[in-house]
Design brief:
This protein has 183 residues and is an all-alpha fold. It has a single domain (2-182), classed as Four Helix Bundle (Hemerythrin (Met), subunit A), CATH 1.20.120. It is 81% helix and 0% strand. It has helices at 2-28, 32-62, 65-70, 72-98, 107-132, 139-145, 158-182. The longest helix has 31 residues, at 32-62. The termini are far apart.
Length: 183
């Protein structure tokens, strides 16, 4: 069963990487490729969420919760997986609700910031998952340089919380300014 979780986890990671690329193309390019990226983004995001939920469910079924919570590495892996799922769920809702206007004006910046943040989160999730099965990566060294020792740390570093708060405030302000312009 362990292999099933690893196999299923590659679906949301692949779809999230594709969605991030599609958001960047849709936000910064023009022409047919940008139009196709914007038009196909919602189905890719929905498929990513279905894959993420399946991978999460299998992961929780395979390993006992007591074992998961006893290991800082596993807790970090689960934490990053839930952060990734949350970020890409927000992106999906934004794209679904905004429709064709998701890439207009300041809304595109919300998508770009969320996609890049989500990319960092799912890269961390995959790196930690690799460590759990004995396949370490150089990305762990980068995480270490940012103050996160993957085998022992179970927290979000204070600087990361600060960045998230600043991003949240900035995006909230952009949303309010956008509402005032349209209202």
């Amino acid at each position: 069963m362990n292999g099933v979780h690893a196999m299923l986890a590659h679906f949301p990671v692949g779809f999230w990487a594709l969605a991030t690329l599609m958001i960047l193309v849709g936000a910064f390019l023009s022409g047919r490729l940008a139009e196709l990226s914007r038009a196909a983004l919602l189905p890719v995001l929905v498929l990513s969420l279905v894959g993420a939920l399946a991978a999460t469910a299998i992961g929780l079924i395979i390993w006992p919760m007591e074992a998961n919570l006893a290991s800082p590495l596993t807790r970090n892996h689960m934490l990053m997986a839930f952060w990734s799922l949350g970020i890409y769920t927000m992106i999906t809702v934004l794209v679904w609700k905004a429709g064709d206007t998701a890439f207009e004006g300041n809304r595109r910046w919300a998508l770009v910031v969320l996609a890049l943040t989500g990319g960092l989160m799912f890269a961390s999730t995959g790196t930690l998952g690799g460590h759990l099965v004995g396949a370490t990566t150089a990305f762990s060294d980068i995480l270490g340089l940012m103050g996160w020792e993957v085998y022992t740390t179970f927290y979000t570093p204070l600087w990361a919380i600060g960045v998230m708060v600043i991003i949240g405030i900035a995006l909230g302000a952009l949303g309010l300014m956008s509402l005032r312009k349209t209202g």
